[in-house]
Design a protein that fits this description.
Largest sheet: 4 strands, antiparallel
Strand content: 5-15%
Order of helices and strands: HHHEEEEEEEE
Helix content: 10-25%
Structural class: alpha+beta
Radius of gyration: 47 Å
Distance between the termini: 95 Å
Number of helices: 3
Shape: elongated
């Protein structure tokens, strides 16, 4: 478009709006209802003025927003401040309203380049300076309200944080695999109570103390030959699904190796018999693995304990120690 001199636009404007009147001059129409040549000239000049204004480049800070076009880069905030009260109508009460009537959605989109610094503004902030709601999201139909995606996701990514510790009404955060906390607690209460039982056997192979229900069947007996050096105990319960743990009980007041040292600090190998030893235990009657020799002990209610010296030898009267056995149910 050719450039037009400023004085040409001014002359056209003054012709359309004389100084003594704010209304356009009413030119008489030419015969046949046509406007006079002067009126047509004024309209043409006004149209050129409009075209001249709108053909200028991208809008900048301070310019009027242009519909359907990119509005350039502003260097200051654009504020829209209103005092619009809600009057109970279908519309009203909001300073602005954005809506897209197409079926593809897209009412509004906000993008930014916020970094990770402590003072960086978020891309979207909704701040209620009074006591009402700060935001509201509503999906009129459908089964999914929306999504939160954070980077590549994973355990280190959090959808959001909050300082509110109250219960969020409607959320099922107290459910695990579809069961609420009350349902999980009720199911646990219906299970049999788990218990741990124990028995303490002295150096002579006799029960010294116990939690209850244990009966000694054989303590280091010489007969039959396979029972020598072992202790056999009836637990009174089926041990098929129980754990059996045996451990040597410390006794630092009983001399066992003749070196007059019972504090476990004697130098050299095998010089602290009071603190050394091995022990193993198992349920009886395990097909292909464990068979108990004393009569009546090869059942799933009995267990056998075999204490040994550190070199694997069977213990005897002079070097045996107390031991605990714990049954976990």
């Amino acid at each position: 478009m050719a450039k037009h001199d400023h004085h040409d636009w001014e002359a056209a404007w003054q012709a359309a709006y004389p100084a003594d009147d704010s209304r356009p001059v009413q030119e008489p129409k030419a015969p046949g209802g046509r406007r006079s040549p002067r009126t047509r000239s004024v309209l043409l000049a006004t149209g050129l003025l409009v075209l001249g204004v709108t053909s200028v480049g991208v809008a900048a800070t301070g310019d009027v927003l242009r519909e359907g076009q990119r509005n350039g880069t502003a260097t200051r905030e654009t504020e829209i401040v209103s005092r619009t009260n809600e009057a109970g109508n279908a519309k009203g009460g909001y300073a602005t309203r954005q809506s897209n009537l197409s079926r593809s959605g897209g009412g509004a989109i906000y993008g930014c380049r916020a970094g990770t610094g402590d003072n960086t503004n978020p891309c979207l902030r909704s701040n209620n300076l009074a006591g009402g709601l700060a935001f509201e999201f509503n999906a009129t139909s459908g089964t999914l309200g929306g999504t939160f995606t954070v980077g590549a996701g994973g355990d280190a990514a959090k959808p959001f944080t909050t300082n509110a510790t109250g219960v969020a009404t409607g959320l099922n955060a107290d459910e695990v695999d579809g069961q609420s906390a009350n349902e999980i607690a009720a199911a646990g209460a219906a299970l049999p109570a788990a218990r741990t039982r124990w028995v303490l056997v002295d150096a002579n192979g006799q029960i010294e103390a116990q939690s209850g229900g244990f009966t000694l069947k054989s303590g280091y007996g010489a007969n039959p030959a396979g029972a020598a050096g072992n202790v056999y105990i009836d637990s009174g319960d089926d041990l098929s699904n129980n754990a059996i743990t045996a451990t040597i009980a410390l006794q630092n007041q009983v001399e066992q190796d003749g070196n007059a040292n019972v504090n476990g600090r004697a130098p050299g190998a095998d010089q602290n018999a009071e603190f050394s030893g091995e022990i193993s235990a198992s349920r009886c009657a395990i097909a292909g693995l464990v068979s108990c020799a004393p009569p009546g002990t090869n059942t799933n209610t009995h267990f056998v304990v075999s204490p040994r010296l550190s070199d694997g030898q069977v213990t005897d009267v002079g070097n045996r120690k107390r031991f605990y056995v714990i049954i976990s149910e």
